[in-house]
Task: structure prediction
Amino acid sequence: MKLGLFGGTFDPVHNAHLFVAEAARTELALERIIFLPTRTSHYRTSPLASPEHRLAMLRSAIASNVHFAIDESDLDAAATGYTADLVPRLRAKYSDDDLTFIVGGDSLLEAPWQRFDIVLDNLERFAIAPRAERAPERLDLLLEALTPNQREKMVLLDLPALNGSATLVRAQLARGGSIRYLVPESVDRYIAEHGLYAS
Result:
C-alpha cells in the first residue's frame, strides 16, 4: 500500500493540515494518509494542549475521510520526538508499504532536522508542501546540499502556498476572536467545550 506519513503537534489540527494531507494523497496517488501526532516538539515551544486533547481533536477532524488514519507511535512515553527515531520504527511496522513523508516547507526549513539521512533512507519519497511566507530559493539551497540519491526522493507538491497555521488559531483564541473556518467545526466545538487556548 502507498502510505503518506504526516507528522506534527497538531496543536490544534486546522483546515490547512487537512487540505495538505488530502491534496498530497491525490497528487501522489497515495492510498492512505497516516497522521502522526507527536508528544513534544524539539524546535518549537511545547504544545499547549495535552496529547489527549490533541488526539481527540485530530480524531474528530479526520473522521469523515476514509483515507485518513492515525498512528500513535510518537505519543508513546518512550518516543523521543525526533523523526529520525520515529521513521525507522514506522518502516518496520509498515514493512510491506511504500512510505512518503509529508511536511510543510516551514517545518523543513526552520526545524533543526537531526540525522536527515536516516529519515530519507527509510522512505520512498519525502514530499514538501509550499508555504506562502517561505522563499523558494531557501528550499533550493537545502536540496543542493543533499546527495543525488537523496534529491531523487524529494518531491515539491504542486499546491497553492498556504498561510494557515496552528499559531494563527491560538492567537485568534487568545484575543477572543473567531476560529470558524480555520478549523473543522468539530475541532471548534471541542476547543470551546474544553476551554482550550484561552488567554
Observations:
- The first strand starts at residue 2 and ends at 8.
- The chain has a mean pLDDT of 89.
